[in-house]
Specification:
The chain is α/β, with parallel strands linked by helices. It has a domain at 2-167 and 201-226 and 274-284: NAD(P)-binding Rossmann-like Domain (Rossmann fold). The chain has helices at residues 11-22, 81-104, 138-148, 174-184, 203-215, 233-244, 254-261, 266-269, 277-282, 291-299; strands at residues 2-6, 26-31, 44-47, 65-68, 111-117, 159-165, 167-169, 200-202, 221-225. Helix 2 (81-104) runs parallel beside helix 3 (138-148), helix 4 (174-184) packs across helix 6 and helix 6 (233-244) runs parallel beside helix 10.
Length: 303
């Protein structure tokens, strides 16, 4: 299978690329600086400007699948108005460029996987599944616009899957590092009220779920990429402290998180319970459905 990945140089793209290459698939990755890109061995780098199909769109004719993960990392700090606009532009322009390339192709790919976020549903409310309407905060609107940026490919006969991704458990994840630091320094404890949900998925499950959705011909529309075991921030931090063999005792008040992080603190201080209903119904089997075993795999096995 030939696969083109936009945003392939990020955490999720690199992991997916390594998995595909290990199974003898061929991977092309769109990157702004192909001459400096550090890619998994065997991947081919293609230069792009992040907003048009100029210079690379023709390669889509040779692709069986396209994966669009492109977008400025939300852990980029601080969230000034210009940076929030950059979050928006980097996602919408990339999605539209991918759609334009597919529209112009004489031989279109069979499937497009379009990235999105679990915050599509908003930061508060009852447990959300794929049928839950979107929320109305900044992150919800951003996720909805990101999804819509490539919607037109469905009109051209391309199967489209939207992955609404939770916090990916990986030692390379910047958000994970932020949550890990106080635990590492023996100040582990709940952040804010601790009652907010922290949706998560192990990086191995994130890759495996994307591979599953690429191959599953009946998979269409949105899928929550989130582990089936729900956890609050307090439960998450307590489990992390146990795995890292550190105490769980220090409460970090919300105002102290907001002081350095500003609006970005909502990613840690607020969260809504969500469930992977469609993924389970479609037949995906989680490798790490439970939080503590997922964290143990990362921290005790040195991943």
């Amino acid at each position: 299978m030939n696969v083109l990945i936009a945003g392939g140089s990020g955490l999720l793209g690199r992991a997916l690329t390594r998995s595909l290459l290990a199974d003898n698939h061929k991977v092309w990755m769109l990157t702004r600086s192909p001459e400096r890109a550090v890619l998994p061995l065997g991947a081919v780098a293609l230069g792009w400007d992040g907003r048009t199909a100029n210079g690379w769109g023709h390669i889509v004719n040779e692709m069986d699948a396209v994966v669009n993960l492109a977008g400025l990392n939300m852990a980029s700090w601080p969230w000034t108005e210009s940076r929030k606009q950059a979050f928006w532009n980097s996602r919408i322009w990339a999605g539209q460029a991918v759609a334009d390339a597919i529209r112009s192709a004489t031989q279109r790919p069979r499937v497009l996987i379009q990235a999105s976020g679990i915050n599509f549903y908003g930061l508060r409310g009852e447990a959300a599944d794929e049928s839950t309407p979107r929320g109305d905060d900044f992150l919800s609107r951003l996720a909805a616009a990101w999804e819509f940026s490539s919607r037109q490919v469905e009109d051209w006969g391309v199967r489209r899957v939207v992955i609404r991704t939770a916090v990916v458990l990986s030692r390379e994840n910047i958000l994970m590092k932020l949550m890990e630091i106080p635990v590492q320094l023996f100040f582990g404890g709940r952040l804010g009220s601790g009652e907010q949900y922290l949706p998560w998925i192990h990086s191995a499950d994130h890759v495996a779920a994307m591979r599953f959705l690429l191959d599953h011909e009946r998979a269409r529309g949105p899928f929550n990429l989130i582990a089936p075991e729900s956890s609050t921030n307090a439960e998450f931090t307590r489990a992390l402290a146990r795995v890292m063999r550190r105490p769980y005792w220090f409460h970090v008040p919300a105002w102290l998180m907001r002081l350095p992080l500003g609006e970005m603190s909502m990613m840690i201080l607020e969260g809504r319970r969500s469930v992977p209903r469609k993924l389970i119904e479609t037949g995906y089997q989680f490798k790490f459905p439970a939080l503590e075993s997922a964290l143990a795999d990362l921290y005790r096995n040195g991943k």
